[in-house]
Design a protein that fits this description.
mainly alpha, 2 domains, about 65% helix
Amino acid sequence: MALLSARQLAGWVAYHAVEPWGERQAWWRASFLAATIINIFRGLFRKPPIHPKELMPPSILDARPRIDPRLVQSAEEQKAVMFAAYPKLKKQYEEREKKRARTS
């Protein structure tokens, strides 16, 4: 993380949201392919169709990121932390807000 700038990290986060990677996605791809093949041949044995989730290991299905509600910050709390760390940014933000107030 120390090698990435905030802009680069935001770019990777956005890319991951559009095109996810990692073990979880690899399992989804594999189970989707396996379910497709199984469903192609299910007519031979007169069995109901199978869903890719049925082929996934439980550990992967339960691997959703869990967010601790105590750690969730409001936008105002996030701004306060950011402005405490970067006082110049707070001044720039306040000036921009004044300009917006005058123009609207």
